[in-house]
Amino acid sequence: MHQFYPETYTGTENFLLNLSRQVKTDGHDVKVITHSFQPDSYFEHTYENILYKEFLYKDIPIIAYKHLNDPGPQTLYQSLEDSELTRFADMIFQKEQPDIVHVAHPIRMGEFINVSIKRGIPYFITLTDYFMMCPKGILMTSAGSPCSGAKQGDACRTLCPEINNEFVKYRYNQSKNILLSAKKVIAPSFFLARMFQKEFPEIDINVIHYGINKENFIQKKAFYTKNQKLTFCYAGSHYYHKGLHVLIKAFLNSKVKKAKLKIYGSGNDESYNHQIRESASKNGNIEFCGVYDELDIGKIFGEVDVLIVPSIWHENCPFVVYEALACGLPVIASDVGGITEIIDHGRNGFIFPRSHSEKLTKILSKIIKEPELLNGIKENINKEKVRTVTEEAHEYLVFYHSVYE
C-alpha cells in the first residue's frame, strides 16, 4: 500500500489494517509493504537507492520503504513503474515468497505488481479511489469540479491540460494491463464498480463492502429534547475535494449559538488549511481537534451527536460513515458517489446536494431547532445490522482460496 499507519490514517489504511488483522486471526501469515516519508535516519537497511525498515504495528509485520530519488507526494503524476523499485520488489518477494499479493492502493506499488506478474504470483486489487483511471486519483478537473470519467484519457486532455497527454495514454494502458492481469478486482461500493466498468468494460469488478471492527465502538445512548445543545463533527482529511469549506460556510450561515462543530483530521495543503481556519475563526463554536488514532474514533463519536461528510468529489464510500453508523450516530452527507448507497435521507441520516452550503445550512438549522428529530433517526440506525470485518474478510478469503482450488 502507498501509505500506512502509524504515519497516515485515512479510511484505506483502516481497511487494510482491519483486513490484515482478521486474516491473521484466521491463521494466515500477513505482511504489509508500504511507502514511508520518514527521515533517512529512521530506516535500518539499504538496497541500492532504497531505504527500508521492518517493524510491527498492532501485531502486523510491516516493511516500510523510501526511495532516495522519490520526488515526494507528487508521485500521483508518476507512472506505475521504476527500475530500482522493481529490483527492490523482486528482492523482497524472493525473500518473503508470498502465495498471494493484495494491492490496497497502487500508488508507489506498481513495481510490486509488475514483479507479481513476472513471478506468476496471483494478485488482487481493491479499488478505493480513481487512481487507476485518473492521474490525480480523485476525478476532479483542474477547475475544481467533479469529472464524470477519464474516457481513456480524452477527458484529461481538455479538463486537465497541464498533464501531458502522451503520458495519460501510456498510463491508461499500464492501468488496463494491471487490472486485466489481476485475479480479482474488488470495489467497496457499487458506484465505484460502475465507474471503473464504464472506463474499462473488459474488467469484471466484484463488490465487497467494508466491515467494521466492532470492538472499537459503543452505541451512543442518547434521547434528544427540545432546546438541547448539539455537537456536530467532521472527521477526515483536510483537502478541497473533501468539502470542509462547504461545511464551515454552512455552519457559519446557520447563525445559531447553541451548537458546536468539532473538526478532526489534518491535511498538508497549507493554502487550504489557512483558508478553512480563517473562515472558522469567525465562530468561537468551531474547534479544530487535531488527528486521531483509529482506536479513538469510538470515544470521539461518543462525545458528538451528528457526523457531517460534505465531500464534493465522487466518494467511494467513506469508511468514517460506516464507523459513525456503528456508533448509532446520524450522518449528514453530500449526494456523491457511494455515500447514497449507505445513507438514506430521513432514515439513517440526511443528504444534501454536493457543494450546496445553503441546503446544508437548512438541514443544520432544522436539527439545531428540533434536536428531537434525531431520536427517530437513531432508532432506525440501531435496528440495522452492523457489517463486521469478520464478514468482509471471509469474502476476501473465499477469493484467496479460489486461486489454489
From TrEMBL:
InterPro entries named in the record: Glyco_trans_1, Glyco_trans_4-like_N, Glycosyltransferase_grp1
Gene Ontology molecular function terms on file: glycosyltransferase activity
**Keyword field:** Transferase
Domain (Glycosyl transferase family): residue spans on this chain: 224-383
SUPFAM superfamilies reported in the protein's UniProt record: UDP-Glycosyltransferase/glycogen phosphorylase
Give the Glycosyltransferase subfamily 4-like N-terminal domain ranges. Answer: 10-215
Determine if Transferase is one of this entry's keywords: yes
Q: Which Gene3D superfamilies does the UniProt entry name for this protein?
A: Glycogen Phosphorylase B
| Protein name, as recorded | Glycosyltransferase
